[in-house]
């Protein structure tokens, strides 16, 4: 797993969540980080989660989420997180729509 470029050595989750996420492929603002996927066995962040167009609906299962693998983060700046998103696909489950970036390897996280 590559490490994004950053001048910061440590950061609180609350500080991370206030940063805008920008796709460097098309310059689009994707939103702010709402959640993290963490591999608790290895103590690593697997992905960041950005709510879809309706954050309120996302809390109740009616919205969509963008799950961005950590390897797609290019740089963590003071105000923004730059990501590289080339292709998206949709997945539905549990009444909630999620947009995923293809992962190089899929791990079953239900075993935690």
Task: Give a quick rundown of the structure.
The protein has 112 residues and is mainly beta. It contains 2 helices and 9 strands. Residues 11-84 form the PRC-barrel domain.
Note the main attributes of this structure.
single chain; 112 residues; mainly beta; SH3 type barrels; four-stranded mixed sheet; globular; PRC_barrel-like_sf; Spore_YlmC/YmxH; YlmC/YmxH family sporulation protein; PRC-brl_dom
CATH architecture: Roll
Helix content: under 10%
H-E order: HEEEEHEEEEE
The number of distinct structural domains comes to 1
Largest sheet: 5 strands, mixed
**Total count of strands:** 9
CATH superfamily: PRC-barrel domain
Strand content: 35-45%
| Adjacency order of strands in the biggest sheet | 3-4-5-9-8
Question: Can you tell me about this structure?
Answer:
The chain is mainly beta and 112 residues long. It has a single domain (13-103), classed as Roll (SH3 type barrels), CATH 2.30.30.240. It is built from 2 helices and 9 strands. A 5-stranded mixed sheet has the order 3-4-5-9-8. Strand 3 (35-39) and strand 4 form a beta hairpin. It starts with 12 loop residues before the first helix and ends in an 11-residue tail after the last strand. This is YlmC/YmxH family sporulation protein. Pfam families: PRC. Residues 11-84 form the PRC-barrel domain.
């Amino acid at each position: 797993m590559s490490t994004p470029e950053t001048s910061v050595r440590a950061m609180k989750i609350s500080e991370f969540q206030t940063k805008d996420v920008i796709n460097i492929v098309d310059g689009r603002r994707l939103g702010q980080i709402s959640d993290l996927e963490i591999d608790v066995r290895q103590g690593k962040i697997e992905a960041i989660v950005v709510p879809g167009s309706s954050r309120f609906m996302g809390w109740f299962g009616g919205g969509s989420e963008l799950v961005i693998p950590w390897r797609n983060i290019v740089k963590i700046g003071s105000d923004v997180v730059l990501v590289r998103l080339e292709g998206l696909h949709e997945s539905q489950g549990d009444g909630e729509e999620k947009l995923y970036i293809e992962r190089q390897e899929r791990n079953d996280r239900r075993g935690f």
